[in-house]
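QA checklist item 7 of 12: single-chain prediction sanity check.
[x] sequence parsed
[x] length recorded as 43
[x] structure emitted
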Amino acid sequence: MEAKFSPQVKDVISFSREEALRLGHDYIGAEHLLLGLIREGDG
C-alpha cells in the first residue's frame, strides 16, 4: 500500500534524505526533517 503525500511533503522527505546523507547518517531523524522543511521553504 502506497501512502499518498502532497508534492511538498515528498520534497521535504527528499531534502531530508539528502541532508542525512550529506551529514554521513544512514537514517532520517528530526534534525534532518527540520533541515528538509527549511529547504522546502513553502511549509
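[x] summary fact logged: The mean pLDDT is 93.
[ ] second reviewer sign-off
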